[in-house]
Please model this.
Amino acid sequence: IQSPFAIYYLKNKSVMTNTLILTRKEVMEMLDISPATLWRWCKTGKIKSFHMGGRVYFKHDDIMNSLIEY
Model:
């Protein structure tokens, strides 16, 4: 069984080449923030996220751009 992300990736390889996708846990560890902070930043638009298969993912580039903007 493949994850929804793996299936999406295989269908859209050319679009996703060189794009690192992170989970909520990875983003929280990377930024040393709590789940509540990550949720709030997503709701206010500080960090962009996308949903796939009932899960939330983040693009590494979006995270880095958010840090530059704020």
Residues 12 and 28 are 26 Å apart (CA to CA). The helical segments are 4-11, 13-16, 24-31, 35-44, 60-69. The chain is about 55% helix and 15% strand.
